[in-house]
């Protein structure tokens, strides 16, 4: 330990000395490992996935916005895809800056006031929007009658979407307002070009002990980790239970009785009764469709929980070791163990992967979405001279005419009975404190600050 460190350590308590003895240590081989993971994992692999994810999200949003697919759930998925695209775009820029060292002066100038807080806002919005969609699915499945009545209004879909998107967007901005003040721009002389260039500098706020403890540790861990995680588990569990109970209550419909009794005095089913039968069957098929959407979203939520678990785990770990990490950093030692840095790389990659595969999960689980994708590809192909397959369009039309039961493979028997009886038609990094380096590890996918050499 140097003389400066001994001077700083003169005022340490016995407990702090014990913590200082356990500071992580690793040499050049471990540092080369971290540099390699930074380039390959956070750089090349993460950028490839992010670019693919942006393409998938844009394409799926176009599919979900089509006339045949437009409903409140799909519009909420479009909003989620938009937030994910913003986060993926920020991760690509961050990979170019940190892993590939390709940041330009414009990139550096935009980072503290636009790119960094913007990426944090988009990640927060993605988390909260996932919770909001889970709540929307829970309402649709747990209170089907109220949900069906509210959807009868032609303006209900737009109001329902705005009811979730607007609060999520506003709360995401408000929560991340401090992020606009965590980094600053300082101008330094470049000895190679003899020019003054911008460089990033961690602000005093970012290294304030109370700010780091109460905002970055407790507040963000609680409101962006533990609470969303618990809500998603709760909503998913209740949705699964409601679907299982509803499926057990469904019984096969008895065959319709033919009027072969010869009793001409007994009238056939009245038009009013037929309309009630039709309405009941339409509502039943709508409930089946809502159940199917809930099952699809359960798959999205499960992957979300798996992808965000390392972020939450690292946040909890950082809370418990924050005192030791601060002491080790102030005395020029490593703040976090090697596995924490490796796990942070994995966490960042999983967050990017989660924002990239929502549309893929939807495509795998939804037959209606797959049919619409095939129809869209056929339509695009026909414009370039490729022969259009009419059977795919017929399948899509048949799926839509079945109400919304095509996703579950359910045939609207009651509706057919009503039509046959009455002829009705259906209408359907590192920073410095006093010149001493401190690691800043971001478990939630935010950029790591570079090593700073400026006295604070």
TrEMBL record:
Q: Which UniProt keywords apply?
A: Membrane, Transmembrane, Transmembrane helix
Q: Which GO terms describe its molecular function?
A: G protein-coupled receptor activity
Give me the ranges of the annotated region Disordered.
250-275
What are the subcellular locations of this protein? Membrane
Q: Which residues cross the membrane?
A: 43-65, 72-93, 113-140, 161-181, 218-240, 293-313, 342-365
Query: What InterPro entries does UniProt report for this protein, alphabetically?
Result: GPCR-Ligand_Int (IPR052954), GPCR_Rhodpsn (IPR000276), GPCR_Rhodpsn_7TM (IPR017452)
* Location, primary (coarse class): membrane
Q: Where is the composition biased (Basic and acidic residues)?
A: 262-274
- List the record's Gene Ontology CC terms alphabetically: membrane
Q: Which Pfam family is an annotated match for this chain, by its short name?
A: 7tm_1
What is this protein called in UniProt? G-protein coupled receptors family 1 profile domain-containing protein
């Amino acid at each position: 330990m140097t003389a400066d460190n001994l001077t700083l350590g003169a005022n340490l308590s016995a407990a702090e000395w014990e913590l200082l003895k356990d500071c992580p240590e690793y040499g050049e081989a471990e540092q080369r490992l971290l540099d390699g993971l930074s380039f390959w994992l956070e750089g090349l692999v993460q950028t490839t996935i992010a670019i693919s994810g942006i393409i998938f999200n844009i394409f799926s949003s176009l599919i979900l916005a089509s006339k045949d697919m437009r409903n409140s759930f799909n519009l909420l998925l479009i909003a989620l895809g938009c937030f994910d695209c913003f986060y993926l775009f920020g991760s690509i820029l961050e990979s170019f800056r940190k892993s590939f060292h390709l940041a330009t002066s414009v990139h550096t100038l935009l980072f503290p006031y636009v790119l960094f807080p913007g990426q944090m806002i988009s990640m927060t919005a993605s988390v909260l929007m996932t919770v909001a969609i889970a709540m929307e699915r829970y309402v649709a499945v747990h209170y089907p009658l109220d949900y069906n009545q509210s959807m009868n209004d032609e303006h209900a879909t737009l109001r329902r979407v705005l009811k979730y998107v607007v609060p999520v967007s506003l709360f995401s901005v408000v929560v991340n307002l401090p992020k606009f003040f965590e980094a600053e721009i300082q101008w330094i002389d470049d000895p190679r070009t003899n020019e003054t260039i911008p460089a990033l500098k961690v602000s005093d706020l970012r290294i304030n002990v109370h700010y780091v403890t109460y905002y970055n540790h407790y507040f963000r861990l609680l409101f962006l980790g533990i609470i969303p995680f618990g809500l998603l588990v709760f909503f998913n569990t209740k949705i699964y239970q409601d679907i299982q109970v509803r499926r057990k209550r469904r019984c096969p419909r008895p065959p319709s009785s033919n009027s072969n009794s010869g009793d001409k005095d007994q009238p056939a089913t009245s038009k009013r009764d037929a309309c009630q039968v039709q309405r009941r069957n339409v509502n039943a098929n709508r409930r089946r469709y809502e159940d199917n959407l809930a099952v699809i979203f359960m798959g999205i939520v499960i992957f979300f929980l798996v992808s965000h678990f390392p972020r939450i785990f690292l946040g909890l770990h950082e809370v418990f070791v924050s005192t030791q990490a601060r002491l080790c950093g102030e005395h020029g030692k490593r703040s976090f163990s090697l596995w924490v840095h490796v796990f942070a790389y994995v966490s960042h990659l999983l967050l990017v992967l989660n924002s990239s595969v929502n549309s893929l999960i939807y495509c795998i689980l939804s037959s209606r979405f797959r049919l619409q994708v095939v129809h869209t590809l056929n339509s695009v192909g026909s414009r370039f001279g490729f022969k259009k397959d009419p059977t795919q369009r017929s399948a899509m039309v048949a799926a839509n005419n079945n109400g919304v039961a095509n996703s579950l493979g359910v045939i609207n028997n009651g509706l057919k009975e009503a039509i046959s009886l009455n002829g009705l038609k259906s209408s359907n990094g590192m920073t410095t404190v006093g010149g001493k380096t401190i690691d800043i590890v971001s478990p939630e996918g935010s950029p790591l600050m570079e090593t700073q050499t400026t006295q604070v």
